[in-house]
């Protein structure tokens, strides 16, 4: 899933707990993130204002990379050099827009996620998408993202690694870091276990002891 790319970039163990071991722990940050996505995630909403069409909750996929997911919003900007859309009988350039809570991150996990969406959209529409944007609710700012060749290459390498972990059912080990404090998976991750065992194995042992 494309949504897993930001998890993987932030922490490979967090990604594996969610996507490989199928565990999930919710805190205020994830709950708030779901609330602010409520309108963006409504697939019934298609808005047209002047020369821009906004499509909400659009499903995208790349057969080449074997990834898929949902774009919060895909804007279609009317442009005679763009892609022809029969429904509107006009040509548009494609502009993916991702909604995020909080402020702009110091890492670029959000940017990688958006780049993956652009790669999927390009494959689906046989077009080139040079840029998109991330809207941060806390700062109420739209931050432009240029889809450079370096970003595209990093996404492809990361996706390849994700597929490898998924096929092996592998959960990476981890050492405690400051970012662990705000992680929604910290109670399931158990970073204090170090390299001794996976979280799922530890929890299984604890449950068996209680029986």
Describe this structure in words.
The protein is an alpha+beta fold. 36% of the residues lie in helices and 27% in strands. The protein is built from seven helices and six strands, in the order H-H-H-E-E-E-E-H-E-E-H-H-H. It has helices at residues 4-10, 12-19, 28-36, 109-125, 149-168, 186-189, 199-210, and strands spanning 46-49, 52-62, 67-85, 90-100, 131-136, 141-146. Strands 1-2-3-4-5-6 form a six-stranded mixed beta sheet, covered by helices on one side. Helix 1 (4-10) runs antiparallel to helix 2, helix 1 (4-10) packs antiparallel against helix 4 and helix 4 crosses helix 5 (149-168). The longest helix is centred in the C-terminal third of the chain and has 20 residues, at 149-168. It is globular. It starts with a helix and ends with a helix. The relative contact order is 0.17.
Strand content: 25-35%
Radius of gyration: 19 Å
User: What's the overall geometry?
Assistant: globular
> Strands of the biggest beta sheet: in what spatial order?
1-2-3-4-5-6
Q: What low-confidence regions span 5 or more consecutive residues with pLDDT below 50?
A: none
Q: Please write the string of helix (H) and strand (E) elements.
A: HHHEEEEHEEHHH
Helix count equals: 7
The first-to-last residue Cα distance is 36 Å
**DSSP strand count:** 6
Strand count, sense and barrel status of the largest sheet are: 6 strands, mixed
């Amino acid at each position: 899933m494309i949504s897993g790319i930001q998890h993987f970039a932030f922490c490979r163990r967090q990604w594996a707990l969610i996507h490989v071991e199928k565990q999930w722990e919710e805190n205020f940050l994830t709950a708030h993130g779901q609330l602010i996505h409520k309108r963006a995630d409504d697939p019934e909403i298609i808005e047209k204002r002047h020369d821009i069409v906004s499509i909400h909750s659009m499903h995208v996929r790349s057969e080449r990379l074997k990834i898929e997911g949902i774009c919060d919003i895909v804007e279609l900007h009317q442009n005679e050099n763009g892609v022809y859309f029969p429904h509107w009988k006009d040509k548009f350039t494609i502009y993916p827009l991702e909604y995020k809570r909080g402020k702009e991150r110091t890492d670029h996990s959000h940017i990688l996620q958006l780049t993956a969406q652009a790669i999927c959209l390009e494959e689906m529409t046989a077009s080139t998408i040079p840029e998109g944007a991330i809207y941060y609710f806390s700062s109420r700012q739209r931050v432009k993202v240029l889809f450079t060749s370096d970003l595209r290459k990093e996404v492809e390498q990361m996706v390849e690694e994700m597929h490898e972990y998924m096929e092996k059912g592998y959960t990476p080990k981890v050492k405690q870091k400051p970012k662990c404090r705000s992680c929604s998976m910290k109670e399931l991750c158990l970073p204090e276990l170090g390299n001794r065992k996976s979280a799922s194995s530890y929890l299984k042992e604890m449950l068996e002891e209680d029986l």
